[in-house]
Amino acid sequence: MKLYVSVDMEGITGLVDHTHVDSGKHNYERSRVIMTEEANHVISSAFESGCKEVVVNDSHSKMNNLLIENLHPDTQLITGDVKPFSMVQGLDDTYTGAAFVGYHARAGQPGVMTHSMIYGARNMYINDTAIGELGFNAYVAGYYGVPVLLVAGDDQAAAEAEALIPNVTTAIVKEAISRSAAKSLTPAKAGELLRRKTEESLKNRENVKPLTPPENPVLRIEFTNFGEAEWANLMPGTEIEEGTTIVRYQAKNILEAYQAMLVMTELAMRTTFC
After folding, report:
1. How many domains are contained in the chain?
2. Binding site: which residues?
3. Do 150 and 256 belong to one domain?
4. Quick one: which residues bind Zn(2+) 2 (predicted)?
């Protein structure tokens, strides 16, 4: 078995607001330690459950958060920015399954630090299906025939995963009270949960099907203001839906849609508000 692990930060145990996930804030360095420990619990359990190879992709912000010197020595780490496929860089059809760790629910939904790639995106759609980072990443995995076996994060991320992926195993390390507050397990108890749930997810792998993306998908991103839509619309092939802040792109496949999403959101972040 070969496992792909994408590790985000907002869904990590005990992390509840921007001071934990912004590299310029006072809680960030201790949050990196917890994030790395959390990844290690999944990695160690995967090896103990029979995986011969585990590849981890750092998937938060500049994607250089995990402390490689503290990671399980037998794993491989994909780290740094820019990555052509961001949170799913390096994922291909050689993997038995994927685990999404430290994940959060999509923009506009309840849950700790909910968003979809950037805080300027109100909604994302593939055709008419609203998705967030979790769903988009699962579609890319599905393109390669790889099932998402495990999703770890808060209770709202778990609910989103269960609605998208039948029989997925979820590990709830905290329960959202608000977008910036939660009732959390301690890292020690979260570690026990993650090890157990990783083992369960690998045993259950035959019962989880890849999330198959639609052919020739239409990507639609609804931004919070028209300036963001204007910036995103600078990407060739896009159009703004009249009377909205939604930018549309017709893609040939989910991989092209994913990269279009990356370009559109990067452009939209150039918007100023003064």
Report:
1. 2
2. 8, 10, 60, 104, 133
3. no
4. 8, 60, 104, 133
In the chain, the amino acid numbered 53 is E
Q: Are 205 and 199 in contact (CB under 8 A)?
A: no
Q: Which two tokens stand for residue 193?
A: 């949960």
Is residue 47 within a helix (H) or strand (E), and if so which, with residue range?
A: helix 28-48
Of all helices (H) and strands (E), which one includes residue 268?
helix 254-268
- Domain annotation covers residue 56: yes
pLDDT in tens, 38-80: 999 999 999 999 999 999 999 999 999 999 999 999 999 999 9
157 and 251, same domain (yes or no): no
Annotated binding site for Zn(2+): 8, 10, 60, 104, 133
Q: Hey, which residues are catalytic here?
A: 115
| Three-class secondary structure assignment of 67-94 | CHHHCCCCCEEECCCCCCCHHHCCCCCC
DSSP letter at 217 equals: P
Three-class secondary structure of residue 227 per DSSP: helix
Strands 246-250 and 238-240: antiparallel
What pTM does this model have?
Answer: 0.98
Going by pLDDT thresholds of 50, 70 and 90, the confidence category of residue 273 is: confident
